[in-house]
Specification:
Elements: E1 4-7, H1 13-24, E2 28-33, H2 37-47, E3 51-53, H3 59-73, E4 76-81, H4 96-106, H5 108-124, E5 127-132, H6 135-139, H7 145-165, E6 170-177, H8 183-186, H9 190-197, H10 209-220, E7 231-234
Parallel strand pairs: 1-2, 1-4, 2-3, 4-5, 5-6, 6-7
Helix pairs in contact: 1-10, 3-5, 4-7
This protein binds acetoacetyl-coenzyme A.
Length: 241
C-alpha cells in the first residue's frame, strides 16, 4: 500500500504541481482546496487525484476534512502545508481584515492542519511534514507585512516541531520558494514585476511550479529521515540565508 499524501491548496499553482509530482512518485494523493470548484474539478478530471474542499483557516473544518480523506484513503503520512493567500498592501493602507486573513490561512492554517494528523504520525512512528514558506518570510517584502510575518512564523513552527517529531520518526521541513510563475505572482502589477522583481533574480526568470514540487518529493521520501528542521530555498539565487 502506498503512503497517503495530503496537499493543501493542492489543485492550483505550486500545490497542483506538488500533487502531480507526488502521484508520479507513487504516493496516494489527496488535494485539498478552499474555494475554486471549477479549477478543482478540472484538476481532478485531468489528473485523477481526488479533491477535498475545506478552509484551512478553520480548525474544525480541518478535523472534519482530514477525517474524510482518511476514511477514503487511509491515514495521512505525508502532509504538505502549501495553501496560502496574499492580501498585499503597503502597511499604512493595510486593514485588520487583510492582516487577519493572511495570518489565519498562512500561519494558523499550519497548526490547524498539522495538529489533527500529528497524533497518528506519533503512534505509527512515521511522518513527513513539508511546509511551503517563502523567500519573503526569509527576507521580508514591502507590501507584505502580513505575508512576511506569517511565512517567517512558518519557519519557527517548522524548527520547533522538528525537535518534537525527531524521536518519533516524523520529519518537519520547510521550503522557501522565490517568485514562481503562478497566478499569485502574475497578480503583481506588471510594472512592479518586470522592473522591480525579475531583475533581482540572478537566473533571470520566474521559477516553475515543478521546480518546487521536486523539492517536496525529495523531503517526503522514506530515505529523507535524517533531514529535519531544515529550510530548502529555491529562488533562482535571489536571496541566500
Ligand atoms: N519590490 C520593489 N519595489 C516595489 C515592490 C516590490 N515587490 N512592490 C512595490 N514596489 C514599489 C513600486 O514600484 C512603487 O515604487 P515607485 O513609487 O517608485 O513607482 C512603490 O513601491 C509603491 O508601489 P505601488 O505604486 O504599486 O503602490 P500601491 O499602494 O498601489 O500598491 C502593492 C502596493 C499592493 C504592495 C503593490 O505594489 C504590489 O502588489 N507589489 C508587489 C508586492 C509583492 O512583491 N508581492 C509578492 C506577491 S507573490 C508572493 O507572495 C509569492 C511569494 O511567496 C514570493
Amino acid at each position: 500500500m502506498s503512503r497517503v499524501a495530503l496537499v493543501t491548496g493542492g489543485s492550483r499553482g505550486i500545490g497542483a504541481a506538488i500533487s502531480v509530482a507526488l502521484k508520479a512518485a507513487g504516493y496516494t494523493v489527496a488535494a485539498n482546496y478552499a474555494g475554486n470548484d471549477d479549477a478543482a474539478n478540472a484538476f481532478r478530471a485531468e489528473t485523477g487525484i481526488p479533491v477535498y474542499k475545506w478552509d484551512v483557516s478553520s480548525y474544525d473544518a480541518c478535523v472534519e476534512g482530514i477525517g474524510r480523506v482518511e476514511a477514503d484513503l487511509g491515514p495521512v503520512e505525508i502532509l504538505v502545508n502549501n495553501a496560502g493567500i496574499t492580501r498585499d498592501a503597503m502597511f499604512h493602507k493595510m486593514t485588520p481584515e487583510q492582516w487577519n486573513a493572511v495570518i489565519n490561512t498562512n500561519l494558523t492554517g499550519l497548526f490547524n492542519m498539522t495538529h489533527p494528523v500529528w497524533g497518528g504520525m506519533r503512534d505509527r512512528g512515521f511522518g513527513r511534514i513539508v511546509n511551503i514558506s517563502s523567500i519573503n518570510g526569509q527576507k521580508g517584502q514591502m507590501g507584505q507585512a502580513n505575508y512576511s510575518a506569517a511565512k517567517a512564523g512558518d519557519l519557527g513552527f517548522t524548527k520547533a516541531l522538528a525537535q518534537e517529531g525527531a524521536a518519533k520518526g516524523i520529519t518537519v521541513n520547510a521550503i522557501c520558494p522565490g517568485y514562481i510563475g503562478t497566478e499569485m505572482v502574475r497578480a503583481i502589477p506588471e510594472k512592479v514585476l518586470s522592473e522591480r522583481i525579475i531583475p533581482l533574480i540572478p537566473v533571470g526568470r520566474l521559477g516553475e511550479p515543478e521546480e518546487i514540487a521536486r523539492c517536496v518529493v525529495f523531503l517526503a521520501a522514506d530515505d529523507a529521515g535524517f533531514i529535519t528542521g531544515s529550510t530548502l530555498s529555491a529562488n533562482g539565487g535571489q536571496f541566500f540565508v
